[in-house]
C-alpha cells in the first residue's frame, strides 16, 4: 500500500509496428496501437520512499484490456521495488514537479533522458470516470519465467484531468530504447491522482518457462 501517493497516467497512440513488437503472442493486438506511461511518487511505502515511471503497451489478455510492462525506471531502492513489480526494471531518476494546475515529470536512466511529460490546465474530474487496467509483467522464482498480473486498486482523494498534455521522447535518446520506439504520435488522455494506491500480490496467469 502506497499512502499519500501521487500518480499520473498518460495514454497515447504509438506506431502500430512498434506497439505490436512489445506484446507477447498471447495478447490480442489493439487497433490503434497505444501505450501508457504511469509515474508514481510514493513518499510512504513498505520499501521506503520511491518514484517509479512505467512504460506499458496496451493489449488484451483473454479479451480483457491489460497493460504490458515494457520497462520501468525506479528512483529509490531498486531491489525491493523490483521484487514487488517484476521485470524489467532499471535504476534511474524520476523527477516530479507539481503545482495547482500543472505537473511535470522527467525520466532518465543510463545517462540519458528518456521522457519528459507536461500535464497542463489540470481540472478536477470525477474519479469514477478514470480507468485502471491491470498490469502484466514477467516474474518467477529461480530460472522460471511466469506471466503475472498486478491489479491497481486506488483510493482516490483528488482526481485531475489534463486537456493539454505533451510527451517528449528526446531525439538524442538511443533509437533502440523502448521509450524512443514507443513515442507518442497522438495523445489520448492524461490524469493526475492523489490518495492511496495499492498494487495487489501478482497472480500467475501463465508459466512461460
Estimated helix fraction: under 10%
Question: Which architecture per CATH?
Answer: Beta Barrel
User: Globular, elongated, flat, extended or rod-shaped: what is the shape?
Assistant: globular
Q: Could you describe the largest sheet, including whether it forms a barrel?
A: 13 strands, mixed
Instruction: Determine and state the CATH class.
Output: Mainly Beta
Q: What is the residue-averaged pLDDT?
A: 87
Q: Mind telling me the CATH superfamily name?
A: Acetoacetate decarboxylase-like
What is the count of DSSP helices, taking H or I runs of 4+ residues? 3
Low-pLDDT parts are none
Fold and architecture overview:
There is one protein chain. By secondary structure, this protein is mainly β. The chain has a single domain (2-207), classed as Beta Barrel (Acetoacetate decarboxylase-like), CATH 2.40.400. Helices cover 9% and strands 58% of the residues. It has helices at residues 16-21, 78-85, 178-181, and strands spanning 2-13, 34-42, 50-61, 64-75, 89-91, 93-99, 102-109, 112-124, 135-139, 146-150, 152-168, 186-199, 203-207. Strands 1, 2, 3, 4, 5, 6, 7, 8, 9, 10, 11, 12 and 13 form a 13-stranded mixed β-sheet that branches. A hairpin with a 2-residue loop joins strand 6 (93-99) and strand 7 (102-109). The longest helix has 8 residues, at 78-85. The radius of gyration is 16 Å and the shape is globular.
Amino acid at each position: 500500500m502506497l499512502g499519500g501517493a501521487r500518480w499520473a497516467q498518460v495514454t497515447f497512440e504509438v506506431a502500430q509496428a512498434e506497439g505490436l513488437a512489445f506484446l507477447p503472442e498471447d495478447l490480442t493486438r489493439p487497433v490503434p496501437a497505444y501505450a501508457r506511461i504511469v509515474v508514481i511518487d510514493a513518499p510512504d511505502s513498505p520499501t521506503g520512499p520511491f518514484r517509479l515511471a512505467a512504460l506499458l503497451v496496451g493489449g488484451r489478455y483473454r479479451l480483457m484490456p491489460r497493460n504490458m510492462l515494457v520497462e520501468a525506471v525506479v528512483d529509490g531502492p531498486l531491489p525491493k521495488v523490483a521484487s514487488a513489480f517484476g521485470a524489467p526494471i532499471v535504476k534511474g531518476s524520476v523527477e516530479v514537479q507539481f503545482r495547482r494546475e500543472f505537473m511535470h515529470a522527467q525520466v532518465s536512466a543510463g545517462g540519458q533522458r528518456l521522457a519528459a511529460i507536461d500535464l497542463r490546465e489540470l481540472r478536477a474530474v470525477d474519479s469514477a470516470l478514470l480507468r485502471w487496467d491491470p498490469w502484466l509483467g514477467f516474474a518467477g522464482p529461480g530460472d522460471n519465467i511466469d506471466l503475472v498480473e498486478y491489479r491497481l486498486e486506488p483510493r482516490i482523494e483528488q482526481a485531475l484531468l489534463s486537456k493539454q498534455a505533451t510527451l517528449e521522447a528526446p531525439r538524442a535518446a538511443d533509437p533502440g530504447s523502448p521509450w524512443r520506439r514507443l513515442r507518442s504520435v497522438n495523445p489520448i488522455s492524461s490524469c493526475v491522482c492523489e490518495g492511496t494506491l495499492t498494487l495487489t500480490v501478482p497472480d500467475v496467469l501463465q508459466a512461460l518457462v
